[in-house]
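Write out the bound-state structure for cytidine-5'-diphosphate.
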Amino acid sequence: MIVPDIIIAIDGFSSTGKSSFAKLMAKELGFLYLDSGALYRGVTLFAQEEGFINKENEISPALEAALEGLDLWFATDNRTFIGERCIEKEIRSMEVSSQVSPIATVPYIRRFVDAKLHELAKGGRVIMDGRDIGTTVFPNAEIKIFMTADPDVRAQRRYDELVMKGENPNLDEVKENLRQRDYIDSHRETSPLSRAKDAFILDNSNMTISEEVAWVKGLIKGKFNIYDD
Ligand code: CDP
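---
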């Protein structure tokens, strides 16, 4: 399917499968995939390791200046790096998940991530996933999807993912982490998680990923009058 040079924004709650879906769509369309959550996770890992955040989620104001020296980037295979170090495994841990939402409420951290996304998306043909892509980061994105799914389905998906990665998660803790992140993400002052008025809702509680891809391809074809496969 040949699609025009557009931006696709995928927003939604935690563990709705946004990133697996966006990665697959990017592959199918020949688009660049950008995982905005990985950038918030990378900043969180950096803040934890450098002592800018404590157990009470208090963030030192010195983090703002330190971000200037933070070399956070994506490899072409979508893995996240700080300098030479691949941080992909660390940023997906429960430890990072437990502090990423407080970190993501801080306006200067959101500005840092937004600037990076704009820089990376300069060439166009991008699919991005996050919480505020269609509302704040790229409000002019041509296609916007808001993903949601039943909370129990989401918790089970995240639990299975962590088990696959060799972690030893507790389902109740995973569920509680999702609940807390949904709450903080939806209630923060700066760019809270919300559906853009022009976003299509995709509830994938009972859908396979290929059904999701077919659904979104249908949307794109309809919008741009594309008749090929
Ligand atoms: O993969 P998962 O659904 O767990 O979340 P993620 O996309 O990796 O994002 C992790 C956290 O980063 C979210 O819970 C938000 O607190 C924050 N985030 C955000 O505030 N804005 C974004 N555009 C993306 C992520």
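---
The mean pLDDT is 95.
The CA atoms of residues 9 and 134 lie 5 Å apart.
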